[in-house]
């Protein structure tokens, strides 16, 4: 995420240096890009957390099944 945001601001500075009349419009695009980059990071973190929780639940279910079948 940090690399993406750094690349965005680098491109923004380069573009404004070449054409300063578009500074406001380019800044708006940069803010939109930052928001989308952060949103993607949050989605990836949530996906990883859900996968981790799913693995823990499956592990617990399999262990419970092993314990309950050993008594029969």
UniProtKB/TrEMBL annotation:
BP GO terms, sorted:
proton motive force-driven ATP synthesis
Which Gene3D superfamilies does its entry note? F1F0 ATP synthase subunit C (1.20.20.10)
Q: GO MF terms on file?
A: lipid binding; proton transmembrane transporter activity
Protein localization: Membrane
Name any GO cellular component annotation. Answer: proton-transporting ATP synthase complex
Q: How does it sit in the membrane?
A: Multi-pass membrane protein
Keywords in UniProt for this one?
Hydrogen ion transport, Ion transport, Lipid-binding, Membrane, Transmembrane, Transmembrane helix, Transport
- Domain of life the protein comes from: Eukaryota
Positions of the V-ATPase proteolipid subunit C-like domain: 3-45
Instruction: State the PANTHER family in the record.
Output: ATP SYNTHASE LIPID-BINDING PROTEIN, MITOCHONDRIAL (PTHR10031), ATPASE PROTEIN 9 (PTHR10031:SF0)
Family, per the entry? Belongs to the ATPase C chain family.
Name the UniProt record assigns to this protein:
Atp synthase subunit 9
Per the UniProt record, the source organism is Quercus suber
């Amino acid at each position: 995420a940090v690399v993406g945001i750094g690349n965005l601001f680098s491109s923004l500075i380069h573009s404004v240096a070449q054409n300063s009349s578009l500074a406001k419009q380019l800044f708006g695009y940069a803010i939109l890009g930052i928001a989308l980059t952060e949103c993607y990071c949050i989605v990836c973190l949530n996906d990883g957390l859900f996968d981790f929780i799913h693995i823990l639940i499956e592990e617990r279910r399999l262990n419970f099944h092993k314990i309950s079948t050993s008594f029969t």
